[in-house]
Amino acid sequence: MSLDKEVAEYTAKTARSRALHEEALAVMPGGNSRTTTFFDPYPFYAARGQGAHIWDADGNDRLDFNGNYTSLILGHAPPDVVKAAQQAIESGLSFPGPTEWEVRLAEMLTRRVPSVEQVRFTNSGTEATMNAVRLARAFTGRPKIAKFEGAYHGTHDWVLVSVAPDPKTAGNRRHPKPVPASAGVPPAVLKHTVVLPWNDAEACEQILAAEAANLAAVLVDPLLGIGGVISPADGFLQRLREITERHGIVLIFDEVISFRVAWGGAQERFGVRPDLTTFGKIIGGGLAVGAFGGRADLMSFYDPRQGAARISHGGTFNANPATMAAGVATLNALTPEAYARLDALGERLRGGITRLLAGTRRKGQVSGVGSLFCLHWTTEPLTDYRSSRPKDAEQPLRMFVGLLNEGILLTQRGLGACSLAMTDEDVDRFVNALARVLARQ
Ligand SMILES: Cc1ncc(COP(=O)(O)O)c(C=O)c1O
Q1: Residue 268's CB: how many other CB atoms inside 10 A?
Q2: Nearest CA residue ID for atom 2, ligand 1
Q3: 9, 40, 361, 399 from 1: Cα distances, Å
Q4: Is residue 281 annotated as part of the catalytic site, yes or no?
Q5: pLDDT in tens, the chain (441 residues)
Q6: Number of neighbours of residue 309 by Cβ within 10 angstroms
Q7: Those residues with Cβ within 8 angstroms of residue 205's Cβ, 6 or more apart along the chain or in another chain
Q8: Could you identify the atom of ligand 1 that is nearest to the CA of residue 281?
Q9: Helix (H, G, I), strand (E, B) or coil at 296
Q10: What CATH architecture is 3-73+336-440?
């Protein structure tokens, strides 16, 4: 089935969403507030979520493998998390000061992640990475930040570089050129950004050595999450640790997505200790959140005690009680057994998809770690951002809309996550739905 036919089936089922979108167009550019969730002709409007399911404004029920872009690790509206947030809200919606919940969530994060000696909360992963790069600059006195081609770290200027560039404009694969990911990113940002090729340790070593005197930080998503969940090659993250340590460069792990792959995040899973870590998504239990933390000597730049803090970090809703309480309840539910279950769901899903794709004409593969997975429409070995680009640029969207019509929600790019609300049958339903979409294409 062509994309047009899949879209026609989708629009036939989503009249109320279309009407809401038309109303929205009058008051919001493109009718929404979130670029990543938009797709043509309009996104469905969510009405309710429960467990592994999400319902739209037309009453369509879908199995949710998007989970608000990997945030909802327990599924929708888990009763203990809802209760914790409700209790916090009933005591007051927000306060101009700290609360006990904030202390408890900070304790939980520092206990789980030994590299995080101290932590501070924000309202988004974007604010977390923004603060982490600022801190690295303040600590080292150096101006530049290195990031990987294909890596997404939010929407502030310093990370809106080479997020999903067209390789034709992005220079040599082993020495990529900084490419702005948005209009409005000033030339100064490009001048101060060094772009690295994922999984190419030799190339990274050369680039970092050449730039070391000016480099404050290497910012790395240990799974290249939005770039396609491409696992680090054996020893790659360790090499980055060695190189950054040798050159006095701050190593920042952006674990906004990857924290969900183990009790102590990807850094535990891969055995690497960064200087700073950023968090988001699951640590707020489904509410707006971010956090950054790490070595106490670096984090002391935020300490306001002797006079003013060297870095000011305000935020009217930082560490707001509902988010903190929901975060505590969520992490309480994430026991070692829960991670084993999430891993098993992810493995079952990847196994099913791999067997399915081996028997179809459409060439693709699935990547992933733990509960995370990503569909790729190429047979090239997946090593970096460029190798994961689909041969047919329309294919990811065709699959996304096809799956919507089959009652499955993924992300447009093909990234997905299993939640603890899912059963083996739910995972098998995904594989069967994918088989039907592939069969009709
Ligand atoms: C690795 C990573 N860092 C940062 C962000 C930004 O987080 P937020 O959307 O909460 O600003 C994201 C969002 O998907 C992410 O995947």
Answers
A1: 17
A2: 153
A3: 11, 17, 14, 10
A4: yes
A5: 789 999 999 999 999 999 999 999 999 999 999 998 999 999 999 999 999 999 999 999 999 999 999 999 999 999 999 999 999 999 999 999 999 999 999 999 999 999 999 999 999 999 999 999 999 999 999 999 999 999 999 999 999 999 999 999 999 999 999 999 999 999 999 999 999 999 999 999 999 999 999 999 999 999 999 989 999 999 999 999 999 999 999 999 999 999 999 999 999 999 999 999 999 999 999 999 999 999 999 999 999 998 888 999 999 999 999 999 999 999 999 999 999 999 999 999 999 999 999 988 888 999 999 999 999 999 999 999 999 999 899 999 999 999 999 999 999 999 999 999 999 999 999 999 999 999 998
A6: 13
A7: 239, 243
A8: 10
A9: helix
A10: Alpha-Beta Complex (3.90)
Domain residue ranges in the chain: 3-73+336-440, 79-333
- The distance of Cα 151 from the centroid of its chain, to the nearest Å, equals 10
- State the DSSP code for 177: P
For residue 377, count other CB atoms closer than 10 A to its CB. Answer: 21
Task: Report the separation in Å between the CA atom of 177 and the middle of ligand 1, taken as the mean of its atom positions.
Answer: 22
- Which two tokens mark 431? 């594989």
Q: Give the integer Cα–Cα distance in Å for 66 and 408.
A: 9
Written out in words, the top-level CATH class of the domain with range 79-333 is alpha beta
Residues in the chain: 441
- Looking at residue 212, the DSSP 8-state letter turns out to be G
Residues with a CB atom less than 6 Å from ligand 1: 69, 124-126, 129, 152-154, 221, 225-226, 254, 256-257, 280, 290
